[in-house]
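Appendix B. Chain record.
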Amino acid sequence: QVQLAESGGGLVQAGASLRLSCTNSGRTFSMYAMGWFRQAPGKEREFVAAITRLLGRTHYADFVKGRFTISRDSAKNTGYLQMNSLKPEDTATYYCAAKSGGGDVSIPSNVAQYDYWGQGTQVTVSS
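Structure tokens predicted for this chain:
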């Protein structure tokens, strides 16, 4: 069983940084690829970043490249999303997700590819 819980969201000013955490209280996180998605009011959930389970290959949406960094600490069963240079348009609920199995060639970036989801954490960036 996989149970994901996000934390670290909050209200910050433009240009600030936040680090989101995603803790898996179930099976070993290293068995899963992990992704971060976000959803703003009235918009569809969109891909932010993902990391593969074996080699830790990463993939980012164009709008966060150079600003956000995804990582994972298998010993702590926790994944992270470091967000720097935040912009008002980054305001959204951020969700972490886990995908069972898979290798490192293809990095999942679609909502439908993920099997487990957290409840989300709100990030609000003021101008």
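Further analysis of this model is presented in Appendix C.
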